[in-house]
Amino acid sequence: MKFYVFVIFIFIYGCSSSVPNKYALQIESLKSELIKTKAMAKHALEQISSLEQKLSKKITMTDSLIVEHKNETLLLRASDAFQKGNYALVTKQYKNAIKYYKKTIDLRPNDAHAYNNLGNVYKEMKNYPLAIVAYQNAIMLKPDYASAHYNLGIVHQESNNFDIALESYLKAASLAHWGVQKWLKDSGYYY
The pTM is what? Predict the structure, then answer.
């Protein structure tokens, strides 16, 4: 009987110890898998963060390139309009010249040369009031612009405003406009 009890005891002990060992092994396996998964997730999150930073830098760089491209495009369009205005002025297509110089001014509002050339168009059309405004805008943007002062003098002279014309010529001469300097010297004026 002792033998049977001993066999039953060993059987029960064997069964009881083998069942928890099976579950314990599964639990240990799951724990190990969980640790590996957490490590992979941590690495993935680090990669995501790194990629987000790289993406942010690329977006910033792309945005700045787009802005730079837009600015260059505006400059090119303004230069193109200015050159077309010059061609129209030389070929006496005054309405087109006005349109192109105004387009240049819209794209580059601080372009004193476009205002000066717009004044030249109005001067050729004998629209002296608009020419005066255009030359004054050029001078306002670039006070040392000798050609604008000279052209303003011509328009005032054509409008019989001789005193103002002389002031404009003297200012142009003081800014070293060689044509005005010669004209004033030949006329007996010294600046």
Answer: 0.64
Residues 85, 114: contact at Cβ < 8 Å?
Answer: yes
Pull the structure tokens for residue 67. Answer: 């802005």
Q: Which residues of the chain have pLDDT under 70?
A: 1-20, 177-181, 183-184, 187-191
For 6-41, give the secondary structure using H, E and C. Answer: HHHHHHHHHHHHHHHHHHHHHHHHHHHHHHHHHHHH
Q: In a 10 Å sphere around its CB, with 0-12 CB exposed, 13-18 middle and 19+ buried, how is residue 82 labelled?
A: buried
pLDDT computed for residue 79 by the predictor? 94
- The residue among 96, 101, 98 whose CA lies nearest residue 80 is 101
The neighbour count for residue 98, using CB atoms within 10 Å, is 21
Cα 104 to Cα 87: distance, rounded to the nearest angstrom = 14
Q: What is the residue whose two structure tokens read 């941590």? A: 42
**Greatest pairwise CA separation for the chain in angstroms:** 150
Return the ∠ at Cα 96 (arms to 92 and 101), rounded to 5°: 105
Give the pLDDT confidence of 79-94 residue by residue, as tens digits: 999 999 999 999 999 9
The count of other CB atoms within 10 Å of the CB of residue 16 is 10
Please list, in sequence order, all residues whose beta carbon lies within 8 angstroms of the beta carbon of residue 179, skipping any fewer than 6 positions away: 150
